[in-house]
Amino acid sequence: MTLPTTSDGTLPAESRGRGRRRRLVWTPTCFERNPHPGIATSERLAQDISIPEPWVQICFQNERSCQLRQHRWESRPWPGKHGPQEGRQKRTAVTGSQTALLLRAFEKDHFPGIAAREELARETGLPESRIQIWFQNRRARHRGQASSVPAQAGGLCNAAPGGCHPAP
DNA sequence: CTTCTAACCTAATCAGATC
DNA sequence: GATCTGATTAGGTTAGAAG
């Protein structure tokens, strides 16, 4: 497995457009023997290839998705989660002041882009990946409650087959 | 323009902390 | 034990880079 790079060779810094992280190019793959790496493995991998740990998680997420789909097409059983599970990420204790900050940001924008998340990470002292999880959980639990959810965020409800790999 | 896939999303679920 | 909430997963969409 090798280092991810952007097309121009620079590390992804700022998002563009709606605020996504700059795309990396993974070569060739980060999917190793264990499709469900624990936090320890993720961190070690991240360190080995000098990238943030959340990117490793995203890479594995996508890879699992693709592999699973392929297994379905080929009518092969997907091994799934077998064997001893590695430890999870330790539960982050979010303090009252951090929650207040996040809540204020959530009221302003339910879908903060990478720039906003990084700013929040700086302000709260929490990792950007935890901020993202916080917003995900917040949206999930306050959907319906909040009357004015911005109509946005990747048209989710229009489920359609598709995705990474085409049928074999 | 088309294809590929990293980045992102939801929904469901698991699990630690607190009461 | 119930509740709250952070973490993880499966499975989907979006958008940027490469061909």
UniProtKB/TrEMBL annotation:
Positions of the DNA-binding region: 87-146
Entry's localization field: Nucleus
Domain Homeobox: 85-145
Residue numbers spanned by region Disordered: 74-93
Protein name as annotated: Homeobox domain-containing protein
Protein's organism: Pan paniscus (Pygmy chimpanzee)
